Amino acid sequence: MKAIAPPSVLVTGASGFIGGRLVRQLIDRRCQVSCLVRANARIDELRLLGVQSLTGDVTDPASVARALAQSQATTVFHLAGLVKALHRDAFTRVNAIGVETIAAACADRAGPPVLVVVSSLSAAGPCAAGQLRRESDIPTPVSAYGRSKLAGEHAAAKYAAAVPTTIVRPPIVFGPGDRGVLEMFRPIARSGLHVVPGRGGQRFSLVHVDDLVAGLLLAAEQGERLPAQGVPGQGVYFLAAEEQPTYAQFGQAIATALGQKPPTLLRLPAPLLRLVGSTADAVAHLRRRPGWINRDKITEALAGSWTCSAAKARAHLGWSPAATLADRLQETAQWYRQAGWL
């Protein structure tokens, strides 16, 4: 009997926080994994995992086509993207043009692979008071980052007639190895302070990285695909934990995960936060390196609540988080400490 070849998978953004966890899961599933990585990417961990590293850039059609040909991928997970940048056109180049380059290259294949594009809740925008964002809602992004991610979704949709494509929009992603939510952990761990933007009543959704990865795999295997003609929300999934804490509640949950007493809340009014964002941008330009705090992120923080419903993913994919938010935060806190990040 002829042996069945393992599935061939190409991952972009594999050297990042989410990509690294996805690659490990694919290897555990005995997939043949190839990764499209930039020439200056840190790929030591990928080498240790034994995956095929293909040097290229998601905005370069030639290197993307070459990666698809060399990997012979039947599934592509496109995670590469910018979450912070010094200039807005960098967001467009990577988050929008990069998606179009990947989708176009997939469409050129004789047998186009399944394409899973990781977008963001930022592409959908904040939700109305007391309501959860759903996939069929009209997107209203408020930041340069969010607009670039929505542009990437539109770029993928242009090739939906040829490429079976699914878009996943995660909210805030956290877990071992994440440096974004680490910025919320550190003040609480070091001084017992937790910054709350504005009035602090906004709620937001989160998803643990391992739960997100599980959802990405399900989306590739059995997800709804983008239609050839635009149907709002079709082929799109939100993946989020059930809990939607306020900033104050999240700070208390982090303190509990750290084994500390509830933090002191430092409420910063909107004008002061905008000043902080502008100052951070000025410093970033001087250092020529973007930071996690910037005007774009402040705009999102002050825009209202950022919550979304994972009901569609539960119904279509059978997806659900493997643990509670409290358990996931405790696991993350333990990893941060063991890694010496706190």
Report the portion of residues in β strands. 5-15%
CATH top level of the largest domain is Alpha Beta
State the end-to-end distance: 54 Å
Instruction: Just name the CATH architecture of the largest domain.
Output: 3-Layer(aba) Sandwich
* Physical arrangement of strands within the biggest beta sheet: 3-2-1-4-5-6-10
Structural class by helix and strand composition: alpha/beta
Fraction of helical residues = 40-55%
**Rough shape?**
globular
At the fourth level of CATH, the homologous superfamily of the largest domain is NAD(P)-binding Rossmann-like Domain
> SSE order in H/E notation?
EHEHEHEHEHHEEHEEHEHEHHHH
Question: C-alpha Rg, in Å?
Answer: 20 Å
Number of strands: 11
Let me know the largest β-sheet. Answer: 7 strands, parallel
Tally the helices: 13
Low-confidence stretches: none
Return the CATH topology of the largest domain. Answer: Rossmann fold
Report the mean per-residue pLDDT as an integer.
Answer: 92
Give the number of domains.
2
Q: Can you put this structure into words, describing what you see?
A:
- The protein has 342 residues and is of the alpha/beta class.
- It has 2 domains: 8-174 and 207-241 and 307-322, 3-Layer(aba) Sandwich (Rossmann fold), CATH 3.40.50; 182-202 and 244-301, no CATH class.
- The chain is built from 13 helices and 11 strands.
